[in-house]
Amino acid sequence: MGEKTILITGANGEIGHGLISHFAEHDGIKVVALDLNTLDEETRSKCYKTYTGDILDNRFLESLSTGHDFDVIYHLAALLSTRAERQPTIAHKVNVDGTMNLLEMAITQSRLQGKEVKLIYPSSIAVYGLPDAGAKGRAGKVGEDQWAEPRTMYGINKLYCERLGKYYMNFYRQLDAQPMEGKVDFRCVRFPGLISAVTLPTGGTSDFAPEMLHHAAKGETYNCFVREDTRIPFMAMPDGVSALLRLEAAPREKLSTQVYNVGSFSPSAAELKRYVLKAFPSASINFVPDLKRQAILDSWPADVDDSLARNDWGWKPEYDMARAFDEYLIPGVSKLYKK
Ligand code: AKB
């Protein structure tokens, strides 16, 4: 089998670390990692090449593209929902213009290489926007085409970029006299909140779950910024990484759409606290809701219908909530913070 070159943007983030570790265990894969910040030594050692640079810098992207033939681009770089709400202009630039730049790079690469280039894109449950808690309760598991009325800058950015990806794949330069030579194979998963045992997210609104766990493991008091009854879907990081890999590997003819929900477990904040306390009985966790961040969470669905992903490419999470805590999260955070 020939070598495969994979570009990962936002490589320093939580998903980036997971993907890089996965690829490091497989022969024939050259990972080119890109982030605004320098990667740590251990992560760098797992990559073929690493770059510190900005996805908004077109000259930098051009030189990157000239130096490598990418088969797949995992475009992970983004500002998450809370940070995007505080810096909407920057969020729009990074989340939307940055994605446009990567789609353009994929088209150019495809034209030059004479073959399709895959662009794998993590979207989010933030694309949904339920009007109130009553509607959220009645909606149950939300399908891809329901309630796509985001109320955050991040959710709007993600929804728009999903559509940009579909456009680049299906209609790009549709008025040109000659058919376009380059082709992007755009594939996207809408992630729930992700929980990792080894890294803490920054700037998200689903961060209350990983923060609760990591604070408990460190022996620090945690004032959780949501109500106890807050319920949104979550997923253990290994399943998040595996969802992206499985979607990338799926035969194109099996895919009936380009954008897929992926679900796993859907606890309330109170249930999360119970699981955390089981492992760290002396943890101090209080609920001190921040009403503005709460309103964002109340607009996100309590659960997602991921039957399309299950039927089309065999999506099935390995970790339900009990297994996620017992076999991955608790052993992982305990090791991470062991003195
Ligand atoms: C966030 O909270 O912004 C992210 C997400 C749900 O996409 N974790």
Structural notes for this entry:
The protein contains 13 helices and 13 strands. The chain has 339 residues and is an alpha/beta fold. The chain has a domain at 78-194 and 236-264 and 303-319: Rossmann fold. The strands form four sheets. The chain has a seven-stranded parallel β-sheet with strand order 3-2-1-4-5-7-11, sandwiched between helices. It has a two-stranded parallel sheet with strand order 6-13. Strands 8-10 form a two-stranded parallel sheet. α2 links the parallel β2 (29-35) and β3 (49-52). α5 runs parallel beside α7. The chain starts with a strand and ends with a helix. The relative contact order is 0.13. 2-amino-3-ketobutyric acid binds at residues 80-81, 124-126, 154, 191, 193, 201, 204-206.
| Rg (CA only) | 20 Å
According to CATH, what is the class of the domain at 78-194 and 236-264 and 303-319? Answer: Alpha Beta
Q: Which structural category fits the helices and strands?
A: alpha/beta
Strand content: 15-25%
Mean pLDDT: 96
- SSE order, one letter for each helix or strand: EHEHEHEHHEHEHEEHEEHEHEHEHH
Q: Largest beta sheet, briefly?
A: 7 strands, parallel
The number of helical segments is 13
Largest beta sheet: strand ordering: 3-2-1-4-5-7-11
- Principal-axis shape equals globular
Distance between the termini: 44 Å
Number of strands: 13
Task: Give the full name of the CATH homologous superfamily of the domain at 78-194 and 236-264 and 303-319.
Answer: NAD(P)-binding Rossmann-like Domain
Q: Uncertain segments of ≥5 residues (pLDDT<50)? A: none
Please name the CATH topology of the domain at 78-194 and 236-264 and 303-319. Answer: Rossmann fold
> Which small compounds were modeled alongside the protein?
2-amino-3-ketobutyric acid
What's the CATH architecture name of the domain at 78-194 and 236-264 and 303-319? 3-Layer(aba) Sandwich
